[in-house]
Amino acid sequence: MDDCIFCKIVDGDIPSRTVYEDDDVLAFLDANPLAPGHTLVIPKAHHERLNDLPADIGSNVFAALHDLTPAVEDAVDAPASTVAFNNGEAAGQEVPHVHGHIVPRFESDGGRPIHALVSDRPDLSDEELDDIAATIAGE
Ligand code: AMP
Ligand code: ZN
Questions:
Q1: 31 in ligand 1 pocket by Cβ < 6 Å?
Q2: What are the domain boundaries of the chain?
Q3: Is this model's pTM higher than 0.90 or not?
Q4: pLDDT one digit per residue (tens) for the chain, 139 residues
Q5: Ligand 2 centroid to 96 CA: how many Å?
């Protein structure tokens, strides 16, 4: 994609602090880190969302996340990390090229867990939960 900032990083047209690379995956430090070591893991091919990723590329991205997460934590002596994708614009995705964030976390970083993502939780009945589960399961 011509105007994609992460494709430009893959192509070497924009510099990055690369920490891992293979045929399908690139990982580099986030330019505006939420914590020291904040790392982005991307497929080299342009796909906008996780939903668009071919399964084999998704597996390779997850394998890189799996291998890099302890390396990132160790590099900055972090006891934990938040590993997440903003998957789609409504979820806060700003760069429309799939990327997983590895954000090192510290006891006193003032950050919040995934459960702080929304302020208004839905009040769902058992029946609604059953219906949603069945729909996701394709029943
Ligand atoms: P998201 O909101 O999930 O789309 O996150 C996009 C991330 O990309 C942000 O954390 C930005 O700081 C990061 N970012 C944007 N441009 C660059 C760049 N040229 N190099 C490294 N990270 C970048
Ligand atoms: Zn791209």
A1: yes
A2: 5-114
A3: yes
A4: 789 999 999 999 999 999 999 999 999 999 999 999 999 999 999 999 999 999 999 999 999 999 999 999 999 999 999 999 999 999 999 999 999 999 999 999 999 999 999 999 999 999 999 999 999 999 9
A5: 7
Please work out whether the CB of residue 15 comes within 6 Å of at least one atom of ligand 1. Answer: no
- Cα(20) to centroid(ligand 2), Å: 17
Name the catalytic one among 97, 99, 101, 115: 99
Q: For residue 101, indicate whether it is catalytic.
A: no
Q: How many CB atoms lie within 10 A of CB 3?
A: 7
Ligand 2 centroid–CA 45 distance in Å is: 7
Fold of the CATH domain 5-114: HIT family, subunit A (3.30.428)
Which candidate, 124, 102, 105, places its Cα nearest to that of 113? Answer: 105
Integer angstrom CA distances of residue 97 from 43, 60, 76, 114, 137: 8, 16, 26, 22, 27
